[in-house]
Amino acid sequence: xxxxxxxxxxxxxxxxxxxxxxxxxxxxxxxxxxxxxxxxxxxxxxxxxxxxxxxxxxxxxxxxxxxxxxxxxxxxxxxxxxxxxxxxxxxxxxxxxxxxxxxxxxxxxxxxxxxxxxxxxxxxxxxxxxxxxxxxxxxxxxxxxxxxxxxxxxxxxxxxxxxxxxxxxxxxxxxxxxxxxxxxxxxxxxxxxxxxxxxxxxxxxxxxxxxxxxxxxxxxxxxxxxxxxxxxxxxxxx
Length: 238
Fold this sequence. Notes:
0% helix
């Protein structure tokens, strides 16, 4: 039988500062819940909003895989390895911090906030060489679109972990999307609803709800209204 744990949107942790509003699906910063430390290799999933013209000043990370998925507005990225990019909706960015890297992120707009999903994944190995990549994707109605994997393909966003990320987009209530796990014996699925209301594993998930599912080899998804949602397959043992 599947093992299911639901994280309702309203139960997430909150960081609310003048320049940043962030909701935490897992323990982060001042939000601590011993039952929500991580889901396998998935350590952080933050739903963040940066105020106009604000950002994170130059700061370090190490031994973590950081994925950024913009939802509204544009983020400017810079790091000490001279990687520079401006990313917005339809883009995904991945940073393998490895042995250590300093970077900064800033809201490009002086008038509007930028919203994005910030995800941290625990890597397979420590002290790897830092690596940065980003790419664009186009969602297709009533299908899954893979936006990240562990496969080392040219022009593909990948990280140092057996993780696959897909965005499902459902526009018809008659659509049934099926996701088959790449590693069914060792992986689980974390679902995060970006917008709309979906149904899976006999549960209904609304906007910004999350659900961790283990002991499954396949999952099916339907929607009560137009919806977009993340499906993240991660190793359960770390």
